[in-house]
Amino acid sequence: MTTSIVRLIAAGFVLMATSPARAETPASLCGTKPEMVDIMMRLIDEGVEKLYSDSKMFVSRDNRDGSMWAVTLPHTTAHPSAACRTKTKDVALLCSAGDKACTSFQAQATARMDKLEAGAP
Fold it and tell me: What is the residue range of 47's domain?
């Protein structure tokens, strides 16, 4: 093999090794199919109330089962992503961005859900 082909192959292995790992898609998000369209359809159903919104995400509560949902807004690093938390505090995340963006979104969503449950706006 020529030196340039060997370098291209080696560069491919380096890129594969350093690419951000994608989180595996969960089997369900609080009982909903892990597809953004299904999540958004659930959040417009009767019994779902919007609790919070800013330039990065909105948070809603499904009063039918008590689950809380955080969804990123367009033009954010982790968009499109969603996190849900059951009444028993089980959390599921649907995020196809890089590890850093997904971790940041999950932390921000969890912190906002904690504040809302504590009664803070």
Answer: 21-117
